[in-house]
Specification:
The structure is a homodimer of 423-residue chains. Chain A is an alpha+beta fold and 423 residues long. Chain A contains twelve helices and 17 strands.
Chain lengths: 423, 423
């Protein structure tokens, strides 16, 4: 690994692309790159243009994922994919997703500049629609490429436009019929691995003072996006406590109960996360002068600690039974759309450790709290692994930040990984 | 009181008016009589027509309140007002407000049919805009008649139309300039009392098995309609508990804490009520995949037990301090628009007891949980009192119900009160 360990990623390319991506998707506060919409499409166009200029071979698949390939010395070997997504949440930051794509492009452009070709093909894959706030399905872009997106997902509607995934794909010139027909663009047998660099989205790398983490597992768990509490509306001054069926009081019992249990889990060293991201009442019915007869909420429970996840799920059922008994309401959780935790490929994880060592980069190791496209590859039987890049101010918000020096460390690891890819 | 005690209210008039009111304001589910809008205006027109047919003298004031007067034998005496409001909440029931107006009209029509004239004038007053879901001000109709509506209330906007109170008044031909100029239609010195019959809106009369209650006090307390919690948005999988500033978790702490304290108050026999009627997050920012950085809520705390009210207010401050410390958020309650509790006129309350006794009607006694127009008169120095009519399924909801037999008992008490009015 002597020679390859010195190959530098093309950081100038990455810096220029971060700036042009931000400019093209500015939507104060923050940036918006809407999945299968104009924002994401502009991001793909910019990255494709940069990849072409860098001398990479560019293609697209029927689902709109883009690929920038550095051909290997020999044909017939398995392709190594380095990738992430180019969409963002509404009013999000510039680095979530894009950092992984740009780290890959910088790595391959660096190899081109050094006239270095790996033994077999390495490609940067830019996926679509990873942020599930747009379409209520996980990783539709990556899954479609792998032939694993169920046909009925094409009928799912984007949360803001109300138009279906198929309609959005067609509007951009892609081919949802190929997805409906079960075609695949990527054969798992022909892929050596999928490696995704991504900003950490949390403070752990700041706390441990490391630029990069190697990620051996991705959190999964339970995800309820349509939970609902049904009680009864009543006049605020006319209904004493004993007759109330107060949906908000019931919700507070559940939220406070989960939070108290989470405190206990933390004290015991169990590392999971619970989030009630959306709560609300029916704006057409609820006023300050009515006991609320209905409430809705979302609940996400995630981690890689399987026994702790199961225990929190059981506690949720107990809290719901208590809330129903105490407040005379009915709680329905609705469908559970949570992915299972994914334990990534140990050999590929070891390859990342070796590449980091070759560059004298001391890496942290931690599981991912968020789901990522890497999970879709892992579930398809493709060896998958991830790198986290230290970042400031979390993610999915306008203040998301990242130091280019930290990004450069991840890009160096990827450059070494790509340079030494054997097929 | 021998003769007058036998005078029967005109229940046929009331029954016919309940039916025509329902038909004119049907808005499934329930009825909508929007304050200073078409729904309330149709209700006034129907009641005025019925009052004229019953032989009562009909007038309106500059704020759109309607009056149906049975002239007394002599001029110069003080007028007794019997009244309530004709607006309803959106998708509410047919009895909240209307029952008090129709009980008054039935009482006076009964006197007309019996050729009985009291010593001095008795009038049914039909007020406007009592339901504060429409305009964020209490009792604007009654207050305007009394010359006590602040001029700046005319600029308040209706929650659904966004048009001001003045604009709504003008559209119906009323005279907001008279209000701005501080004029009054009713001189407290010339009013013997204001008696309001109203459905109970709660289950207490059902539980004690009485048709009617005499109400010696009206609840007041604290009312926060614009409370807000500010934390920080963060990625759901990236932000561990220790760095979260979760507005929903903080809200749950406050709601669950107030509810637990309310349980203790109830066990101690302290009779107050607390309601979080509206909770929510910013729909443009909150998703299931983000730690919520902002939440808002309304909180109403009411009763007639002054020490208990003050204690709950103190507990609220403690809970807010705890939530801020534990969750790193900032809580602002916003303006407190709660009215003070109103202890009604003891002499008038005793008159109601005497009239009920004269008709052999055994009444319950209880404070009112809700604010009512009677409070506006009380605050203006007019002797005020109330009757509650037993009703089913609470109020402010489409299932609101009332037995005509119970209504008849209240109307009988009012008929006796009107018949024996001395001026």
């Amino acid at each position: 690994m002597k020679h390859e360990a010195r190959l530098e990623p093309d950081l100038a390319l990455a810096e220029a692309l971060f700036a042009s991506l931000r400019e093209a998707s500015l939507d104060p506060p923050g940036v918006t790159r809407d999945a299968y919409g104009p924002g994401e499409e502009r991001a793909h166009a910019l990255c494709i243009e940069a990849a072409k200029e860098a001398g990479l071979a560019v293609t697209r698949d029927f689902a709109g994922n883009s690929y920038a390939t550095l051909p290997g010395k020999a044909e017939g070997g398995r392709t190594l994919l380095i990738g992430s997504h180019l969409d963002s949440v509404a009013h999000g930051g510039n680095y979530d997703g894009a950092a992984g794509v740009l780290a890959g492009l910088a790595a391959l452009s660096g190899l081109v500049k050094a006239n270095h070709r790996p033994e077999a093909d390495v490609a940067v894959m830019m996926t679509r629609a990873e942020e599930t706030v747009w379409f209520p399905v996980s990783f539709p872009g990556a899954k479609a490429a792998l032939g694993r997106l169920p046909a009925d997902a094409l009928a799912l509607k984007r949360s803001d436009t109300g138009r279906t995934l198929a309609e959005h794909m067609r509007a951009l010139g892609f081919d949802p019929d190929a997805i409906a027909a079960g075609r695949r663009h990527l054969d798992p047998e022909r892929i050596a691995g999928f490696v995704e660099a991504h900003i950490e989205q949390g403070p752990e790398l700041i706390e441990v003072d490391r630029a990069v983490a190697i990620v051996p597992a991705i959190s999964g768990g339970y995800r309820f996006r349509q939970a609902r509490i049904t009680g009864e509306y009543a006049h605020v001054g006319g209904a004493p406590k004993r007759v109330r069926r107060d949906a908000v009081a019931a919700l507070a019992h559940i939220v406070a109960g989960i939070n108290a249990s989470w405190d206990r889990f933390e004290a015991e060293g169990h590392r999971i996360m619970t989030t009630f991201g959306v709560i609300g009442v029916d704006p057409a019915m609820a006023t300050w002068s009515r006991v609320p007869g209905e409430a809705r909420f979302t609940l996400d429970i995630r981690g890689v600690d399987l026994p702790a996840l199961a225990r929190m799920r059981h506690i949720l059922d107990e809290l719901i039974a208590e809330a129903e008994a105490k407040h005379g309401v009915t709680v329905t959780l609705g469908p559970d759309t949570g992915p299972r935790p994914g334990f990534l490929d140990e050999a590929l994880v070891q390859r990342l450790r070796d590449c980091a060592s070759a560059r004298f980069i001391a890496c942290h190791e931690m599981p991912s709290g968020g789901g990522h496209d890497a999970l879709a590859f892992h579930e398809a039987g493709v060896p998958a692994a991830m790198l986290f890049i230290r970042n400031q101010n979390g993610s999915h918000n306008p203040d998301e930040a990242m130091e280019m020096a930290d990004f450069a460390e991840a890009a160096r690891i990827l450059a070494t990984l790509a340079a030494t890819h054997q097929g």
